[in-house]
TrEMBL record:
Domain Sucrose phosphatase-like: from-to ranges: 9-259
Alphabetized UniProt keyword annotations: Hydrolase, Magnesium
Pathway: Glycan biosynthesis; sucrose biosynthesis; sucrose from D-fructose 6-phosphate and UDP-alpha-D-glucose: step 2/2
Documented EC number(s): 3.1.3.24
Organism, as annotated: Morella rubra
Catalytic activity: sucrose 6(F)-phosphate + H2O = sucrose + phosphate
Subunit structure: Homodimer.
Cited PANTHER family: SUCROSE-PHOSPHATASE 2-RELATED (PTHR46521)
Name recorded for this polypeptide: Sucrose-phosphatase
Physiological role: Catalyzes the final step of sucrose synthesis.
Cofactor: Mg(2+)
Coiled coil: none
Family: Belongs to the sucrose phosphatase family.
């Protein structure tokens, strides 16, 4: 993928549930606002990384439920699986790192001695992550005792409690933070370290992300007590970490502005389609504008479309080749094809009637 071959202008590493995705927002407005901002201003030279506790099975399920972008890199199962691109090519080097002092059979055998632990579903038991449910008041004691048992058996593991119910056992070298550290080291070795990295999270298993030196961090406004407590104890005086006043993806947009990491006005917030000055035509922005125009046009919310169509025509004539390249680029990924074809009919009509 071309974007992985250059030093990214901005790399956003975001948790999904209750961070990028707001499960209390049935219209997905903040997610759609972030998507339009990313597609129009960042996609071409920046990297989007999703870092989730979800296994590949549950991650794919979420993608069917919510209008999520296709990330450049996906870190799943609490930092134990790293994959690249839409086809999700695994990082074999990371698998080797995780195999050190790890034996999942021993983990399952020892944990079965704790009746407080309830094994999660089969899809959540991964090569380097074994997950349980445990009640909040029992968690600390179980974690301490279990850790001792596993150490006696020669393993070097990490136990993470998250969301007030999930207990994950991972190799010591795993976790969201370690996976990010591995990626940053890999980029550094290849001479393409991102210029800025922004990590985003809401719960306990995100704390590690905020421990990585040099990164900016945003705890979304709805962050859980466990993350806020960690912050109060370990990173209170770090000016590069903020607790946003906005929920979920809106908090991420807020952080981009707070740290001056780039443009942070989503095109979705701009009601005037003609706002972009012609001399500063940004092809990505124009494609997103066309898509947003189409959305509103379908809902019969556009009273007078002529000025916008004239502006689109002028933009295309001025930067014709770039515009069409961008149009293909933004919608070429497998997952976005449906969206591409949804607008293609209208786009073709516009192009045929007004431009070509
Ligand atoms: Mg979360």
């Amino acid at each position: 993928m071309d974007r992985l071959k250059i030093s990214a202008r901005l790399m956003i590493v975001s948790d999904l549930d209750h961070t990028m995705v707001d499960h209390h927002d049935s219209e997905n407005l903040s997610l759609l606002r972030f998507n339009s901002l990313w597609e129009s201003n960042y996609r071409h030279d920046s990297l989007l990384v999703f870092s989730t506790g979800r296994s590949p099975t549950l991650y794919k399920q979420l993608r069917k439920e919510k209008p999520m972008l296709t990330p450049d890199i996906t870190i799943m199962s609490v930092g134990t699986e790293i994959t690249y691109g839409n086809s999700m090519v695994p990082d074999d080097g990371w698998v080797e790192v995780l195999n050190q002092k790890w034996d999942r059979n021993i983990v399952i055998e020892e944990s079965s001695k704790f009746p407080e632990l309830t094994l999660q579903s089969e899809t959540e038991l991964r090569a380097h992550k074994i997950s349980f449910y445990v009640q909040k008041d029992k968690a600390q004691a179980v974690m301490k005792a279990l850790l001792e048992c596993l150490e006696k058996r020669g393993l070097d593991v990490k136990i993470i409690y998250s969301g007030g119910m999930d207990l994950d056992i991972l190799p010591q070298g795993a976790g969201k933070g370690q996976a990010l550290a591995y990626l940053l080291q890999k980029f550094k070795t290849e001479g393409k370290l991102p210029k800025h990295t922004l990590v985003c999270g809401d719960s306990g298993n995100d704390a590690e992300l905020f421990s990585i030196p040099e990164v900016y961090g945003v705890m979304v406004s709805n962050a859980q007590e466990e993350l806020l407590q960690w912050h109060a104890q370990h990173a209170k005086n770090n000016p590069k970490i903020i607790h946003a006043t906005e929920r979920c993806a809106a908090g991420i947009i807020q952080a981009i502005g707070h740290f001056s990491l780039g443009q942070n006005t989503p095109p979705r917030d701009v009601m005037d389609f003609l706002e972009c000055k012609l001399e500063n035509v940004n092809p990505g922005h124009e494609v997103v504008k066309l898509y947003l125009f189409y959305e509103r046009w379908r809902r019969a919310e556009v009273e007078n479309s002529e000025p916008y169509l004239a502006s689109l025509k002028a933009a295309c004539v001025k930067r014709r080749a770039t515009f069409f390249r961008a149009f293909r680029f933004f919608f070429c990924e497998e997952r976005d094809r449906e969206r591409f074809w949804a607008i293609a009919g209208f786009g073709t009509a516009v192009i045929c009637e007004h431009i070509v």
